[in-house]
Design goal:
There is one protein chain. The chain is an alpha/beta fold. It has a single domain, classed as Spore Coat Polysaccharide Biosynthesis Protein SpsA, Chain A (Alpha-Beta Complex), CATH 3.90.550.10. Helices cover about 25% and strands about 30% of the residues. It is built from 7 helices and 14 strands. The chain is globular, with a radius of gyration of 17 Å.
Length: about 230
C-alpha cells in the first residue's frame, strides 16, 4: 500500500526556523518531524510518495530513495495551489490503489492510523474547542461523514479532520473549487465524494498539529508524557 505525505509548504508561520530548513526537517525530541511521521506509518505501507516544494533538496538528501525499508517517490509541487492540487499531482503514481494520505507537520497515534486501514475510505477526527482553523466534520450515528468544511467561520460541530485520510481513486473524480485564498483544498474534494461514497470518521487517540514555533516545545512535552 502507498502513502502520500504532503511536504511542499514554506512553513511561513514557523519563521524564522524555516528560513534555513524546510518545516518537515524541524526537530522534535531530537528527530525531524517527518521522521516521527514515518515511524507512525502502518507496516502495510511499503512505498511513500512525498510531495515536496520548498527546500526540497534538503528533504531528498535526508531521506534518499528509501527510508526505513520504504521506497520513496518524490513529486514536486512548484506553486502554492493547495492540498487538492498536491494530491492531484500524485494521480499517475497512485494508479487505482487505495492509499493513505498525511501531512508532514502533524504528530499522530500509530494505532489510530491502523484503524483507518480497516475501511475503504476513512479519516481521523479529533475534538477542538475552537475548530475554525481546521476542516470541520459532521457525522451521522454510524460515524459516516455527512459534511466537511474547510476553516468555516460558523462551525457545525467541534469534530475536525486530523490530517490522516484513507482514500481510493474515486477522489480523483471530483474537481475542487478555487478558494478565496486561491488554493484548492482536499476537503472540497472529499465533500463532493461523500455524497456518493461512504467516508468513515475514526476518533484519534493522539494528534498534535505543529503550526507555530511554540508548538515544537509542546510536542516534546506531550511525547515525554506518552512515554511515561
Amino acid at each position: 500500500m502507498k502513502a502520500v505525505i504532503l511536504a511542499a509548504g514554506e512553513g511561513l508561520r514557523m519563521r524564522p526556523l524555516t528560513l534555513d530548513k524546510p518545516k518537515p526537517l524541524l526537530e522534535v525530541a531530537g528527530k525531524p518531524l517527518l521522521v516521527h511521521i514515518w515511524e507512525s506509518l502502518p507496516s502495510a505501507i511499503d512505498e511513500v510518495i512525498v510531495v515536496v516544494g520548498y527546500k526540497s533538496d534538503a528533504i531528498r538528501a535526508y531521506f534518499g530513495n528509501e527510508y526505513l525499508g520504504k521506497k520513496i517517490t518524490y513529486i514536486v509541487q512548484s506553486e502554492k495551489t493547495g492540498t487538492a492540487r498536491a494530491l492531484q499531482l500524485c494521480r499517475e503514481a497512485l494508479g487505482e490503489e487505495r492509499f493513505l494520505l498525511l501531512y508532514a507537520d502533524d504528530l499522530h497515534h500509530r494505532e489510530s492510523i491502523e484503524k483507518c486501514l480497516a475501511y475503504e475510505r476513512a479519516l481521523l477526527v479529533a475534538h477542538r474547542d475552537d475548530p475554525r482553523k481546521f476542516g470541520v466534520v459532521v457525522t451521522d450515528d454510524r460515524n459516516r461523514i455527512v459534511d466537511i468544511e474547510e476553516k468555516p467561520e460558523h462551525p457545525k460541530s467541534h469534530r475536525v479532520a486530523a490530517g490522516v485520510y484513507v482514500l481510493d481513486s474515486h477522489i480523483f473524480d471530483y474537481e475542487p473549487a478555487r478558494s478565496p485564498s486561491g488554493e484548492y483544498f482536499l476537503t472540497d474534494m472529499i465533500g463532493q465524494m461523500l455524497r456518493e461514497h461512504d467516508v468513515i470518521a475514526i476518533k484519534t487517540e493522539f494528534w498534535h498539529p505543529i503550526g507555530y514555533p511554540e508548538d515544537l516545545k509542546t510536542a516534546e512535552e506531550l511525547l515525554k508524557q506518552r512515554e511515561l
